[in-house]
């Protein structure tokens, strides 16, 4: 006889949900395209029990049915990983919580493959750290300043996400499921600095570094022969310490490695006693005197005031797009004739993306002009939809859901097939009409199934006689009554 499962507790890691059912524990690893939602039984039956998955554009990977609610894991491609175990220590190792634990100690004790950063997160972290995505492993991790700045960028990215993302996600939640509007989805662009963006708004002194970097690269490219990035000391990293102020303000910060001991003291920092693991490591490797690649006399004050970071008149600089194995987005050009060190094998040169191909990769274009998803916490194929019903905005679990009247479901479906973009007529094209007709038949079929089910399973009779409805008088009727009184 199978064990009786009763929900005891829920916990989470960066990449998984762990549900404790008493005798068994379930770990759901989201992987790339799976998201979790909580529906009422009514929402579940009126949507996923009636609407074809081809119309919904998502698949039910797993559903946990409780007395009044259903916890559903929706997936674009059914790529997720459930693991059932009898005790907590039988679960796979979880990623270290860098935000609240000693990440260096966790890495040493992991005894397993140490997990890395996500595809778009790493681009944002490189921006915060003032690093070019072209850097080789040696250029980054054989340099104390760049190594520390990379860590600072990651810590600040985590801090900002942990403290601020709930204010973006919660308004897009209805009951227990996500149903973001297009405006809410576009709001995530404000969280991104460079990934899938057309341009970056930068503080003045950071924009000056971008211009200086571009001029230096143009001069070096004109030489017509390969040149070493590591040996070109006048090519300064585009770094703004205000972007990682949280990390650099910690009592145990590594500012002396990021800026060099002398400059760090000039900026008001306190020198380390040299016994921390990073300082000890770089000292042992003879790398403490390695160049910082930071422009001298550029960082006073260390942190800019908030007004200099959020002004509406901030200078804009182009974001360049490249593709190697993955997408690369950077505020600095990646020169074709440069290499890390002359004596080292360098990385492959990525291909720059321009024109319409680049436009199709932009976050704004994906949200406003396609039916696909971009990146971020509001971008899942399993998300619900916000539909106008009269003067109200109602969140529905999926396209074609029978939780709203049929004609509203059909109107919502039609809006999905209307062309978008500036100057485009909001009329169905021939191909759009064909696809709409096909999917409209699926919506009609879903409502037909609902009516048949309702006839075979009528709602329970109310206990006791129902109270007569109180009639509401219009303003004219009330005035007439007052006149006769």
What count of structural domains? 3
Q: What global shape is seen?
A: globular
N- to C-terminal separation? 74 Å
Q: Note poorly predicted spans.
A: 110-115, 474-485
Strand content: 15-25%
Pairing-aware structural class of the strands and helices? Answer: alpha+beta
Tally of individual helices: 19
Count of distinct strands: 18
Q: How many strands, which pairing sense, and closed or not: the largest β-sheet? A: 4 strands, antiparallel
Instruction: Give the integer mean of the pLDDT values.
Output: 87
Spatially, the strands of the biggest sheet line up as 1-2-3-7
Percentage of helical residues?
A: 25-40%
Cα radius of gyration in angstroms: 28 Å
Structure overview:
- It is a single chain.
- This protein has three domains: 9-87, MutM-like, N-terminal (N-terminal domain of MutM-like DNA repair proteins); 119-367, no CATH class; 385-453, no CATH class.
- 35% of the residues lie in helices and 15% in strands.
- The chain is built from 19 helices and 18 strands.
- It has helices at 41-47, 53-56, 103-109, 119-129, 137-141, 144-164, 166-169, 182-186, 204-221, 245-248, 255-259, 261-266, 277-284, 306-310, 355-359, 363-369, 406-417, 430-456, 475-484, and strands spanning 9-12, 16-20, 25-29, 34-40, 59-65, 69-75, 81-85, 173-174, 177-178, 199-201, 227-228, 316-318, 320-323, 327-330, 338-339, 351-353, 385-389, 392-396.
- The strands form seven sheets. A four-stranded antiparallel sheet has the order 1-2-3-7, with no helix packed on it. Strands 4-6-5 form a three-stranded antiparallel sheet. A three-stranded antiparallel sheet has the order 14-13-16.
- Helix 4 packs across helix 6 (144-164) and helix 17 (406-417) packs antiparallel against helix 18.
- The relative contact order is 0.13.
- Mean pLDDT is 87; it is low at 110-115 and 474-485.
């Amino acid at each position: 006889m199978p064990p009786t499962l009763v929900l005891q507790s829920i916990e989470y890691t960066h990449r998984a949900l762990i549900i404790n059912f008493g005798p068994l524990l379930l770990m759901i690893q989201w992987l790339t395209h799976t998201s979790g939602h909580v529906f009422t039984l009514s929402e579940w039956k009126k949507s996923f029990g009636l609407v074809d998955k081809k119309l919904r554009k998502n698949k039910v990977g797993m559903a946990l049915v409780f007395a009044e609610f259903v916890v559903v894991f929706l997936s674009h491609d059914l790529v997720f990983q459930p693991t059932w175990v009898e005790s907590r220590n039988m679960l796979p190792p979880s990623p270290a919580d860098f935000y609240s634990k000693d990440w260096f100690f966790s890495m040493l004790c992991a005894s397993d493959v140490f997990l890395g950063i996500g595809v778009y997160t790493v681009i944002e972290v490189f921006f915060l750290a003032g690093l070019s995505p072209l850097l080789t492993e040696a250029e980054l991790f054989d340099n104390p300043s760049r190594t520390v700045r990379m860590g600072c960028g990651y810590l600040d990215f985590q801090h900002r996400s942990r403290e601020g993302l709930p204010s973006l996600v919660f308004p897009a939640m209805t009951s227990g499921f996500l149903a973001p509007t297009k405006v809410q989805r576009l709001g995530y662009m404000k969280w991104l600095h460079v990934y899938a963006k057309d341009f970056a708004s930068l503080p003045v002194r950071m924009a000056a570094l971008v211009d200086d970097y571009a001029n230096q690269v143009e001069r070096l490219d004109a030489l017509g022969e390969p040149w070493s990035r590591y040996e070109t000391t006048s090519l300064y990293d585009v770094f703004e310490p205000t972007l990682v102020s949280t990390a650099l303000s910690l009592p145990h910060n590594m500012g002396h490695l990021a800026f060099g001991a002398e400059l760090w003291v000039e900026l008001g920092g306190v020198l380390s006693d040299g016994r921390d693991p990073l300082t000890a490591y770089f000292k042992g490797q003879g790398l403490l005197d390695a160049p910082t690649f930071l422009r001298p006399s550029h960082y006073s004050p260390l942190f800019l005031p908030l007004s200099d970071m959020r002004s509406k008149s901030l200078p804009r600089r182009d974001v360049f797009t490249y593709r190697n194995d993955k997408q690369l987005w950077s505020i600095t050009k990646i020169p074709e004739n440069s290499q890390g060190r002359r004596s080292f094998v360098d990385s492959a040169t990525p291909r720059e993306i321009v024109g319409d191909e680049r436009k199709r990769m932009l976050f704004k274009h994906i949200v406003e002009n396609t039916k696909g998803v971009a990146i971020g916490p509001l971008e899942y194929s399993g998300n619900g939809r916000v539909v106008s019903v009269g003067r109200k905005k109602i969140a529905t679990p999926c396209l074609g859901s029978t939780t709203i009247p049929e004609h509203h479901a059909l109107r919502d479906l039609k809006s999905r097939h209307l062309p978008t973009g500036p100057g485009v007529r909001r009329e169905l094209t021939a191909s759009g009409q064909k696809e709409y007709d096909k999917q409209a038949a699926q919506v009609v079929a879903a409502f037909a199934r609902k009516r048949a089910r309702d006839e075979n399973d009528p709602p329970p009779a109310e206990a006791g006689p129902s109270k007569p409805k109180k009639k509401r008088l219009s303003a004219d009727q009330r005035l007439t009554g007052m006149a006769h009184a």
